[in-house]
Structures are given as C-alpha cells and as structure tokens.
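Lab notes, practical 5.
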Amino acid sequence: MWTGSQDKSGYGRIHVKRHCERKSGRNFFAHRLAYAVQTGEIVEPDEYILHQCHNRLCCNSDCFEIGDHHDNMDDLRASGNISGEKNPKSKLTEDEVWIILEMYYDEGMTLTELDRKLPNVKRGTISDIVYGRTWAKVYDEFREAQT
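Output from the prediction step:
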C-alpha cells in the first residue's frame, strides 16, 4: 500500500530527480513504478493499470490488469466505487442533486441563477449535473420520472 504523497485524485505519486530527462525531475504514479519493478515490464503510456481491488493506493501487481481507456471506464463503472455519494470527495448527496435538477428542469432556473443560489457548488459541477455528465444515475432516474 502506498503511504507517500498523493495527487488530487487519490493516486500515489513519487517524484524522481535523478536519472530523469528533465533536470527538475518528474512525477510518476506509484502503481506504475511498482508494476515495472515487480514484473519487469514497462506499461506503455496509452495503457492503463486497472486496480482490481479498486484501491488507488494499492501497489501490488497481483491486483493489476492492463487495459486501455475503454477497459478502464468499464471497470470504473462496474465497480460503482466512485459514483455519487460513494465517492469520498463528493460534496453533494443524491437528494441535493435531485433538488438541483428540479430547480433547473421543473422551476426553469438558469445555470447563472443556480450558480448564485448555490454558492458552495461550482458552476461546472451544476452544469455537469443538469446535462447528465455526472451523477448519471440520479439524472437518469430524474429524467425517467419526468416522462
């Protein structure tokens, strides 16, 4: 398990200064370096390491599968670990998202009006919610209830 620094998405990161093409060094994902050390294989930049344990800090190559972006998205969706209230970084509940959808679709509030009414929610987040880019489960349930 990685215990060092993390990026904003919760993945382990390590900074390497020596033996690097840049004088200032370079940041690497801890799990990618761990995979290379444990298996002797370098993962190509367009390949993804899929954490089968769904723990972003895991550095055990036994928990990894190699895939592409599509595989990663399928794995992420199937895990259900990061969607909605299950996401530890989520600042909203499903009920609050439902209310945002009601204000937009039922009450006819604009994004600008929602932005003013909800100062603790970023405008981009509101936009993603009302267009179904995030909170897709709640969005789909809301739209289904509208028909």
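Observations recorded by the TA: The beta strands are 13-16, 26-29, 48-51, 64-67. Residues 86-146 form one domain.
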